[in-house]
Amino acid sequence: MKQLPRALALLGCGLVLLSACTPPSPPVDSVYTLSGKVFAPGAGGVTPLSVQGMHWNAPHVGGQVLLSAQNLSAQNLSPAALSALSGVRTQSLPSAGLTVAYTPAGQTDAEFAATLAANGLAAQPNYRYQALSAPNDPGYPINAGIRVGGALYDQDYLTRINAQSGWDKLEALGKTPVGALTAVLDTGVDTAHEDLAGRLLPGRDFCASLVTDSDGNTNCSGEDSDPSDLTQGSEAGHGTSSAGLIGAATNNGKGIAALTWSGKTILPVKVFGASGANSGATTASLTAGVKYAVAQGAKVINMSLGLVGASTDPALSKAVADAAAADVLLIAAAGNTPNQGLYYPASDPNVMAIGALAKTDALACYSARPAAGQKALDLVAPGGNAGSGTANCYQSSEYDILTLATTAQGRYTLRAGTSEAAPQVSGAAALLRALRPDLSANQVKGILTVTAKKVAGGSLLDVGAAVQAAYTYGGGGGIVVPPKPPVVPLVPYSLRVDAFLGDALAGTATTTGKDAPPIQSVTYRIKNLVAGTYTLKATLTVDNVISNGEATVTISGGDAVRNIQTR
């Protein structure tokens, strides 16, 4: 055998020794980085999520569900999750950090979501949202309208008082159009009305029956806890109308839109009774109603009622004064005759008097005007045209106010009167008092009157301008700076993640720090790992509470990402 040159032989031996005795260090391009997040218990995107709390009947995009996990690679999912998604079309939404999974044929979205959740994937409907300030109630202008007497009508008066602008401003502030507690002293309400669902507090009846004596005199008798609207008499349904203008359930796809949209903030106080065709309220029932409203914490009291021919009512005046002293804003209809002055209690100095505009910006033919020596109207609002511009003032018109009627009366109707104007102001006042509970009743009254639009018939309620002014009120007109949030103490945390290749510890990541609670996850990164399948063991300590988690990941040909859920 021919002998090889010594140098070459040594090189060959060296090559043999290197390959047979000591593993070579991998080239630089053969090591990889593993990173991800370690989730605190209950915080991870890989935690199973029950679908029982999801509202699958709510408007949502059909034929798909949303997954909270964005990276659906094999490295990030359990075998069960991968199996559940096998054959499913998905679409990543990086900006949202979500993934769309399209529902397979033969399954409902809810069924598909339940299957995914059972296999560790958080799934939910892709809800369809709409702008908060554009109610979907049929009566709201631009929507379909409500049929009354064979014709369709809408709530054009909401446009005239600039309600949309007020709602838009509240939306921009991150608020919904909820109102402060508002008492409606009237004929009661239809407590079962579809468009008052979820809006009414229990309330009370201070005229359980209207007793007529042998001389034809009527008087309220008794009280109870049932404020249901009158079912007989000329004023049946009047209170349901007033309550609806202030607080019909709004953006519910039914009926009309109200100034305030949601929440149990309408307190029905029945002060009228009926006996046959006769209906009425008394000083006693009204006084009791005002006192009750104050005791229940009402911030606004609406009184779409009045007494003509009397400048005051001492008992009621005392109750009204006490209510005003308790920082309650009282609002009343001015009256429905044009030549008898303001009715009482609208004429009371502690009550805002509200007149009614016709279809134009002039006072309606029926709206009360102040008599000599009386105060001026505080505000006006649309009250329906009635017979304005004709020889007969007291007749119905297609330009009257679309509002609620009792269910027995057909649920919706047209009405005209200062009784319809006053609740619009009460609704606006309730919005302002909810937005700025720090403002007094007099301050809110001032904002409503100063921001009103000057028209031929007086000072027209401007909801948008009033909401803006209420928000910026204080400090000489500067924006009221909200209080700073309380300082939250930072919570200490520590994390250790070990990567095992077989039984050997191949790499470790540790980190410590402090952060504001709740700490949902901590990021880790382990470098210089060779290709292979690793078992990851994580220990997360948050404010001395220890949780542990494990996961597996396969690295092959590139850096990898793997999140770990602790329990």
Summarize the structure.
The chain is α/β, with parallel strands linked by helices. It has helices spanning 6-21, 79-84, 109-118, 156-160, 163-172, 238-247, 283-295, 314-325, 418-435, 441-450, 463-472, and strands at residues 32-39, 64-67, 90-93, 98-102, 123-124, 146-148, 151-153, 182-186, 204-205, 209-212, 218-221, 266-270, 272-275, 278-281, 300-303, 329-333, 351-357, 379-382, 401-404, 412-415, 453-455, 458-460, 491-501, 504-515, 521-529, 532-542, 545-555, 560-561, 564-565.
Using only C-alpha atoms, the radius of gyration works out to: 35 Å
Q: Quick one: how many beta strands?
A: 29
Note the total helix count: 11
Order of strands side by side in the largest beta sheet? 9-12-8-15-16-17-18
The CATH architecture classification of the largest domain is 3-Layer(aba) Sandwich
Name of the CATH homologous superfamily of the largest domain: Peptidase S8/S53 domain
How far apart lie the N and C ends?
69 Å
CATH class call of the largest domain? Alpha Beta
Q: If you consult CATH, what is the topology of the largest domain? A: Rossmann fold
Low-confidence stretches: 1-28, 44-53, 127-134, 475-484
Shape: elongated
Oligomer: single chain
Instruction: Note the beta-strand portion.
Output: 25-35%
- The average pLDDT score comes to 83
Largest sheet: 7 strands, parallel
Q: Please estimate the helix content.
A: 10-25%
Number of domains: 3
Structural class: alpha/beta
